[in-house]
Amino acid sequence: MTAEATNPRLGAAGTAPDTVHETRLTARGRKAIIAGGIGNVVEWIDWAVYTTFSSVFGHHFFPPGNDAAALLATLAVFAVGFVMRPIGAAVLGAYADRHGRKKGLMLTIGLMAAASLVIGITPGYATIGIAAPIVLLLARLVQGFSAGGEFGSSSAFLVESAAPKRRAFAGSWQQVSVGAGVLIASGIGAIITSVLSPEALDAWGWRAAFVFCALIGLVGIWLRTSVEETESFTAQRDRDAQTAAPKRNAVVAMFRDHPGATARVFGITIAGTLLYYMWVSYMPTYAHVTTGLPLNQALLANVIAMVVFLVLLPFAGILSDKIGRKPTMSIFAGGFLLFAWPAFTFLSGTFWSLLIIQVIGILFLLGYSANCAVIMAEQFPPEVRATGIGLPYALAVAIFGGTAPYITTWMSGAGYGNLVWVYCAVAAAIGLVVYLTMPETKGKVLR
After folding, report:
1. Angstrom distance (rounded) from CA 225 to CA 191
2. What is the DSSP annotation of 82-110?
3. Which among 262, 289, 274, 236 is positioned nearest to 67, based on CA atoms?
4. Among the listed residues 87, 426, 119, the one whose alpha carbon sits nearest the alpha carbon of residue 278
5. Which of 113, 212, 296, 369 lies 20 to 30 A from 257 at CA?
6. Are 389 and 265 in contact (CB under 8 A)?
7. What is the DSSP letter of 399?
8. What is the rounded distance in angstroms from the CA atom of residue 136 to the CA atom of residue 122?
9. CA dist., res. 79 & res. 266, Å (int)
10. Can you tell me the distance from the alpha carbon of 193 to that of 196, in angstroms, rounded to the nearest whole number?
């Protein structure tokens, strides 16, 4: 066999590649971004609405008398939900690797919407006693299971649908849709907390939010029925059929055949997930609880910062496709390493201080969020890609992301609030080391 025939960068008969096809999204790719992205938005609205209203509904599910303890218990349930994410990533990721990205995505959104409905209609502790926190816990575990499967399947789906030199751009829409879900959840929170009286919000407003989010899950299911399976998956399925290859256990194959890539995805995620959840999901609640800033103002600041995030994310993906994954991710981690102390030192009980801090953090987060889907997808072949993306990512998220709100709330309550910045800075330092030492995957052939 000739060198030309084995060179994946050359076309048929050793000709130069078709650069137009390498850089231009096809109609199929655009449809994948639209349908996959909107479905992912719906999925993450359901996930994020929990933290948006955690300080409102927590006391309904736990014994009365101590609102601070009820909030901590509610956040503990939030953290426990992350325990199911690695399990969901393993089970649902393996399902998507065996049966297709489309089927996996249909299953995840159905589970998420059903759990949101359960939270919205479950009676409180005063009505059903200990059953209330148990049902809340079980519903959040189902949501964690769903979210664990969603990230790997949706990332694989978007990146596999992209032109070779537009993979980071396509992958960035995974995080655009996640951010849009958080934004809409925050917007729902801002509207409801502004329109309803505190009594109505406490009595039924938060329940209406959960029920609404469950109902729009039907929209996501409908959208995901319209997409085609990726060519990467179908080609792998055809190869397996032609060679009569035995069915693989994707989890075993991931650890056995790709240990370095698995460890790398875990390391890539540590700083990204901790800082993402601090800035995007929990900062409004943190500012409300620690500084006394009204919740509606904190949520409004979050909405504005998220709009900036969503607008700039695809451009950060384009930048990564041009200059590489390593430099853009290193800017993220290095920026937060320098920004952690001033961010928490100058956070006061004013709307403008929170908005400025959130926007600066969001700008640094672009480097991680534009890259995470594509760089993880570039580590694995298609037969283990959804599992390889989802499982080590979910393990890191469970350990570092899911516990971040609880740890920072506990630190503030225990008198260590002045050290929260150290917690974030250490995560950023770990990320910087990982990003500077990992191999560059821009331009890697993705089958």
Report:
1. 31
2. TTHHHHHHHHHHHHHHHH-HHHHHHHHHH
3. 289
4. 426
5. 369
6. yes
7. I
8. 8
9. 18
10. 6
Token readout for 44 is: 């993450």
Distance of CA 4 to CAs 9, 165, 332, 446, Å? 9, 21, 39, 18
Q: Indicate the pTM of the whole model.
A: 0.79
For every one of its 447 residues, what pLDDT tens digit does the chain have, with 9 covering 90 and above? 333 333 333 333 333 344 445 666 666 667 777 777 777 888 888 878 887 887 788 788 887 766 676 777 777 777 777 788 899 999 999 999 988 888 898 899 999 999 999 999 999 888 898 898 889 888 989 998 998 898 899 899 999 888 888 899 999 998 898 878 877 887 888 888 889 898 898 889 999 999 998 998 888 888 888 788 888 888 888 887 777 666 678 899 999 999 999 999 999 999 999 998 888 777 887 888 788 888 889 888 988 998 999 999 999 999 999 999 999 999 999 999 999 999 988 888 899 999 999 999 999 999 999 999 999 999 999 889 999 999 999 899 888 887 787 788 788 778 887 888 999 999 999 999 999 999 998 888 777
Q: How far is 187 from 48, CA to CA, in rounded Å?
A: 11
Q: Please state, as a whole number, how many other Cβ atoms lie within 10 Å of the Cβ of residue 195.
A: 11
Asked whether 371 and 328 are in contact (CB, 8 A), the reply is yes
The residue with tokens 């609405």 is 49
224: nearest Cα among 32, 400, 73: 32
- 198 CB-contact burial (10 Å; exposed 0-12 / middle 13-18 / buried 19+): exposed
| Nearest-angstrom CA–CA distance, 396 and 375 | 16
3-class secondary-structure state, position 346: coil
Please, how many CA atoms are within 13 Å of residue 181, restricted to the half-sphere of its CB?
29
Q: CB neighbours (10 Å) of residue 4?
A: 12
Please name the amino acid found at residue 57: F
Q: Residue written as tokens 């509610």?
A: 74
If one counts every other C-beta atom within 10 angstroms of the C-beta of residue 197, the result is 9
Phi/psi zone of residue 324: left (φ > 0), alpha (ψ -120 to 50 degrees), beta? Answer: left
Phi/psi zone of residue 17: left (φ > 0), alpha (ψ -120 to 50 degrees), beta?
beta
Amino acid letter, residue 352 = W
